[in-house]
Amino acid sequence: MTNEAVTKYLETKNVAENAINIHFKTRSTITGLFVKGNDYEELRSKNFWRIVTHANLPQWEKTKDISLAKIFNGMEFTRFSEQ
């Protein structure tokens, strides 16, 4: 997906609070939450996205520690779906 397509989805859906399923071209689907760090605009311009995976969500909700997020390439996304 292009960064414009990802941005449009993030703006139209309430994904800031809710985890979604993220489907990939070459790997298994993950459930995660898109997060905005200090470098959000720079990463977004390059179509990279910080996502906290389902396994780290409880700890993320308590600490908001950005190191719990992984960076993914948006070109590998095929679609998003609600949980």
Which stretches are low in confidence, meaning pLDDT under 50 for 5 or more residues running? none
Order of helices and strands: HEEHEHEE
Rg computed from alpha carbons, rounded to a whole number of angstroms: 12 Å
Beta-strand share of residues: 25-35%
Describe the structure.
The chain contains three helices and five strands. 28% of the residues lie in helices and 31% in strands. With 83 residues, it is of the alpha+beta class. The radius of gyration is 12 Å and the shape is globular. A hairpin with a 5-residue loop joins strand 1 (20-24) and strand 2. It has one domain (3-82): SH3 type barrels, CATH 2.30.30.
Helix-strand blueprint:
Layout: H1 3-12, E1 20-24, E2 30-34, H2 40-45, E3 48-53, H3 57-63, E4 70-73, E5 77-82
Antiparallel strand pairs: 1-2, 1-5, 2-3, 3-4
Summarize the structure.
By secondary structure, the chain is of the alpha+beta class. Helix content is 28%, strand content 31%.
Key structural traits:
83 residues; alpha+beta; SH3 type barrels; five-stranded antiparallel beta sheet; 3 helices; 5 strands; 28% helix
